[in-house]
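A common beginner's mistake is to predict each chain separately and then try to dock the pieces by hand. The better habit, illustrated here, is to supply every component at once so that their relative placement is modeled jointly.
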Amino acid sequence: MSTRIYVPRETAAISVGADEVAIAIARHAKEKGEKIELVRNGSWGATWLEPLVEVVVGEQRIAYGNVEPGDIPSMFAAGLLSGGEHARRIGPTKEIAYLIKQDRWTFWRCGLINPLSVDDFVAHKGFAGLTKAIGMGQQSVIDAIRKSGLRGRGGAGFPAAIKWQTVADTAAEQKYVACNADEGDSGTFSDRIMMESDPLGLVEGLLIAGFAVGASKGYIYLRSEYPLAHSILTRAIVAAREAGWLGDNIQGTGFSFDIDVHLGAGSYVCGEETAMLESLEGKAGVIRYKPPLPAIAGLFGKPTVVNNVVTLASVPNIINLGGEKYAGYGVNRSTGTLAFQLAGNIKRGGLVEKAFGLSLRELIEDWGGGTASGRPIRAVQVGGPLGAYIPAEHLDTPLDYEAFLGIGAMIGHGGIVVFDDTADMAQQARFTMEFCALESCGKCTPCRIGAVRGVEVIDRMIADENRDANYELLLELCDTMEGASLCAMGGMTPYPVRSVLKYFAEDFASSEGTGK
Amino acid sequence: MTREDYNPASASELMRGFGSRPEMLVQILHAFMDRFGWISEDAIRQLASELNLSRADVHGVVSYYHDFRTTPSARHIVKICAAEACQSMGSRALVKHAEESLQLKLHESNDNITLEPVYCLGNCACSPAIMANGKTFGRVSATRFDEIVAGLNEASS
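With all components supplied together, the output reads:
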């Protein structure tokens, strides 16, 4: 009988040596004449423990963390195949506190299964949501999503059911589901973990959305910086098609739907939904005026559901377990769970799926263990490059869409980037403007020109040139960009800039009068 | 994948693989990048002609996206993540180190290596991150950077 060993095939794990570990395990087992079955699973999301190797012993999976290829001989000698004691041994995976304290609604199969196996997926409730949805009928599916309170997890937090209902109610011969997998915000990787660890969970979400609104075609717009996710996702889609879960007359239900994966090409603004649609049509990713809304005239002018990866991947369990159950998680109008991503200068970085309502401090301290450098926290950027820099004094703010708006911040896609006290916040404000200048699609003037001027004004402030006048000018520029830009790129670039002016003004040098 | 110099026969074959549909232009350009390494003026001319687009249309798309190069790169492409999560773990110092050790500025190439910034590889819990020839590396110290670069040179020698 062979022993099953799991080694993740996931970008973060591989980036710190998981492939080399897998090779070393296979080679060593062969040399020792041990029979093993090596399975490349996805990641559980405890990135700080990667490469995380698991050995199946009886009913349990025994985890070994931060494994290096050089550890393999001693791990075998210590009885790896029976879960033997070793400096790298953590214990049973299902007892890892980082994981068991989470509310895994959407990411529960990540790490557990072989992402490329349709059988493994189906054995873990895969496609059960789709089957149930088809039995319920289109409107009941949309009603379940409405009851769940699910809001767009890409960042904007728009209620998913309203989009779905609009597309369903708009008459057209062709409708589309376009999944936004252009996860460009620094500090975010939940879409990637989903696509690499449970790609069929996303496929099922698209299928249910397609069924609910009457679409027969789905697109996944995936950023090109994710080559491994591309490979895993396309292979999983081929496997699903071969098994009759995509294509014509799926499993004899009469419902037909298929999915194409399109690659982005390094443009941040293509994560904005209308720029993404332009790019999907083969054009430059220049944003569109709204209205018309994509739900009425989207891809190729047809009604289109545009949802983020995590939004769609949350759907199967909402159908399985009911919208009310999902709505039971969270607080106020932020119902359900969000996959927070602990990133940057943090000791225990990774993915934490948790109901809304806990505080930033709980996440950063209880899960994250504070900074990686061991120094005090200076600032935390939440929600990507367009999110505010939050000072330590606001770390007790509950993670709730509206509570964050209340402090001039946003939760966005749930990325949390921690900076220690060595951070130069004036440089961070400058980078915000520089990034906007680099990535602006160029359609509207406040964003295209404003960002360039913003860098210049900040440079003058850093050089201590007419600081008070430039401070006023920068605030005015922020007003113009926020009020007059066509999309969030120019419209929210002022958020992090203003937050630096408000909380970290001293970093623009020490002269008097910069006041808050 | 096999790299070859741009030639009209190969280019046509790639376009036909996408049904020569103009709405597949971004995907076709990726295929050109994989095959030819860059998008030449001649390639733009041929794309326009075979996809029934204007040269200005094609040029507009090529120049819009960071991924599409209009000059050849060196044999190896090293991208350093310069976005916020990596900044919080010292990517600015890593860029400085790379520039000094390779004697290159960002966006420059020597005979061997093209050095570029990238804005997020989605490896933010293992910052700072780099991508070398399409493979992502995490927790990259200056020493590890040098080892990765040495590994590229070894693999191709």
